[in-house]
Design goal:
about 350 residues; alpha/beta; Aminopeptidase; eight-stranded mixed β-sheet; 10 helices; 8 strands; globular; binds zinc ion; signal
Amino acid sequence: MKTSKRMRALAGLTVALTAVTAMAPAPAASGKGASGLRMTWSSYHSLADIDAFLEQTAAAHPTTARESVVSTSAEGRPIKAITLGDAPGREQEIVLVCGQHAREWIAPAACTYLVNELVVNRARYPQLKDLTVTVVPVANPDGYEYSRTFDRRWRKNRRSGSSTRCQGVDLNRNWGYKWGGEGTSPDPCTENYRGPHAFSEPETRGLRDYFLSRTRKPAAVVDIHSYGQYILVPYGYDRQGHMYSDYQDLLSVGRQMSQAIYQYKGKTFRAGNAANVIYPAAGSLIDWAKGTLGSKYDFGLELRDDGRYGFNLPAGQIIDASTELAVAVRTLGTAVSGLPTAHSAD
Ligand SMILES: [Zn+2]
């Protein structure tokens, strides 16, 4: 990691802010996290807080929660995962990847909320009872910290480039399935720079290797973003509507998730093909999960809101946005539970 006077000063400021966050009272609605942790979901937290939360959750629930390091970022930060379930490796698995885009702060917040729910309030999620759920809360830790300390609107990772503006690769354009197509740029100075080649970045490479190293491929891969309130179904690399045999299964489950979210607080999440519902984007995680990994249920979720606050979703909405994610994952759990078990598939 680079050190400079400015960064050291900012690091000090971050520590100070973290201390303030730690002292802030938890809202009555959410209470504290597992074992009295300082994660409150009443504010957005630093990477250090999130990493500590994962560590402490795993330590407090050794039989059901297991922490691991998926990869190391461009600037040397660990990318952590937490796996929840009674028998990882034998059960069907749902994997959630959160925060590929740095400025979408609600993604890591909602994903850590879900982790806490699944350890503290597991009984509320009978649909996930016989499943393993793995969560990668911050897939782009360098970008997330940069967004928190230097530039709130930062999107990419922190690969070094020729100038400040030209740093970083859009991680969700760097995956290897149909890499380099529509909705991506070869120009390092753009927001959707796809990188010099597929999997050029340690973040995507590490996640890819993690997926491929699993005992069995996950039944579902969900990529969490904001904003827009969409449930996106692959393929998103162009608008040609490329079909696959179970496309209707995905669309149907996507619509069920949308209905479940609507029943919570009346928010509309539009479900449909990624390229048609928003815009074409080649080299995305969900396209790779479907086209290369061969996982069945692959979705991109664009969480709150519909544009009023955009990336700057007020912290007061973290719990509602997180609950909408939890409701969607619960619905997905019903679909995944209906698949053949690990044993019968062997
Ligand atoms: Zn995004």
